Amino acid sequence: MLAGRRCIITGAASGLGKATAARFSREGAQVVLLDLPSSNGTAVAEELGDNVVFHPTDVTSEEDVKGALDLCESSFGGPVNVAVNCAGIGVAAKIIGRKGPHSLEMFNQCLQVNTVGTFNVLRLAAERMSKAEGEGSDEARGVIVNTASIAAYDGQIGQIAYAASKGAIVGMTLPAARDLAANHIRVNCVAPGLFLTPLLEALPEKVQTQLGSTVPYPNRLGVPDDYAKMVQNIVENDYINGEVFRIDGALRMQP
């Protein structure tokens, strides 16, 4: 059950993060939304209800993430016990392009936000979880769900930075679950395919339809609540640990 869970969700002002926050809050969870100060996080929190608050956060900042965890405790009466990492950026560039080699700054930025940001939230949330009283017969203290991408496996031309950042998140899953097993904290990962997030919503409808037609079945783009339902299942099923779940309609990306 999600009712009564104390959650932080990154990238929560839009897309997958917002859908997860909406589903969790409907199910009775208490949620802190983490997103950039420039986002519409305040409006989203007001839209989702009284059990949702917003904390402006750069996920690569230790101070910002600690502030969000503090807000969770002060607002909801206890430490976080669910953390969902949805924050991320995408870049597109070939290793050798028209203007020369791939920008090292761009590559670093993608890994900094996607990989380092995910790890920063994971490590700080896990510390708070580890200090809580265990719950249930297994004395569970918390669950962390990270977001990769099928690009970790099927990275396309121009996705070297993005695929590397998401591949690292996949690679962290099992070691993190093993590291935190003694603390009774589970760690899992979701690897979405083509989803109708703000990036794809900006494309013409014809292009969206064409992209959706490449998915074997269901023959459509994923919607953010498809992802949110998967995260809910991971949180609620106490025996899921150390695993990466593709959610892509059997899509395998072409080069």
Key features of this structure:
255 residues, alpha/beta, Rossmann fold, seven-stranded parallel beta sheet, two-stranded antiparallel ribbon, 16% strand
If you had to describe this structure to a student in words, what would you say it looks like?
- A hairpin with a 2-residue loop joins β5 (96-97) and β6 (100-101).
- The termini are far apart.
- The protein contains nine helices and nine strands.
- The protein is of the alpha/beta class and 255 residues long.
- α1 (15-26) crosses α9 (224-236).
- The chain has a single domain, classed as Rossmann fold, CATH 3.40.50.
- The strands form two sheets. Strands 3-2-1-4-7-8-9 form a seven-stranded parallel sheet, sandwiched between helices. The chain has a two-stranded antiparallel ribbon with strand order 5-6.
- It is globular and about 55 Å long.
Summarize the structure.
The chain is an alpha/beta fold. It has helices at residues 15-26, 41-48, 62-76, 104-130, 151-154, 160-180, 198-201, 205-212, 224-236, and strands at residues 6-10, 30-35, 52-56, 82-84, 96-97, 100-101, 142-147, 185-192, 244-247. The chain contains nine helices and nine strands.
Spatial order of the strands forming the largest sheet: 3-2-1-4-7-8-9
Spans of at least 5 consecutive residues whose pLDDT stays below 50 are none
Number of structurally distinct domains: 1
Largest sheet: 7 strands, parallel
Structural classification: alpha/beta
* Rg (CA only): 18 Å
CATH architecture label: 3-Layer(aba) Sandwich
Instruction: Determine the number of helices (DSSP H or I, runs of at least 4 residues).
Output: 9
